[in-house]
Predict the 3D structure of the following.
Amino acid sequence: MCNYVAMWLAMAMAFASPAFAAGKGPGAVRKQAEMSMVVTGQVRIAADGRVDGVRIDRESEIPKAVADLIRQNVPQWRFEPLATPDAATDTPMNLRVVARRLYGQAEEAYELRVGSAHFGRDEPSHLPSQAQMQPPTYPELAARSNVSGLVYVVARIGRDGRVEDAFAEQVNLNAVGSEAQMKRFRELLAQSTLTTAKQWQFAPPTQGPYADEAHWLVRVPVAYKLKRDKTPAYGQWDLYIPGPRQRAPWIDADRDATAGVDAFGDERIQSVGRGRRLLTPIDGNS
């Protein structure tokens, strides 16, 4: 746990910009902080939905506690069975593992859990490809206040490759302030992202099982980074204040078979509602 303690101590300095932290509530907001990392690999799924095995990519580079958590939880999962009794299949997986401090304990304690997951990976030719994706403008107030963050946006792409609608599902911030300040900066980053996202252009797929659909749903992570921000390497923790998760009103819950919106590996774009569907709770609790 010593690495967790060091990260939380560093957060008090890295997240405390005097210009931003002024006002009521930053102490309570700081307690919402979490660290996470995305671990990739493969899960072997039997035709009846049972898990027959799991492989973790570059396991030596991730903390042992994270590898142990994955190996304990994944075999308990059950996926939607296949319509035909095919052999077991090896399915790519992205798991976001989350660590969070537990306050109010007699001793310093932390919770470690699988927070979100994405299973499967479409052939690039079966997905809309980016034709023109201009990055959004960094809101001036956020930049002046040393606020960076990450916006997870879902877009609905029409047959002509234009974005018919876009929705910010979650906004995480690398800064601490009052609840009101955090809400304001999340709104600024989300609005800048959506204004630009609605101007994006995609090349619709011309082959594969989804080529004839009326529209396509994709998720895209949009990062707002300052010079101080470094992208964590594989197996390293990323520290932030998570924003609330919201579902786009035009996404059917049954179609969105993923567990969470932030389990991105090295993909720039993820399809929504594809791949094997997980039936059991991702955290192992019923």
Residues 18 and 158 are 45 Å apart (CA to CA). Residues 179-197 form the longest helix (19 residues). The two ends are 28 Å apart (CA to CA). Helices lie at 2-14, 18-21, 26-30, 64-73, 140-144, 179-197.
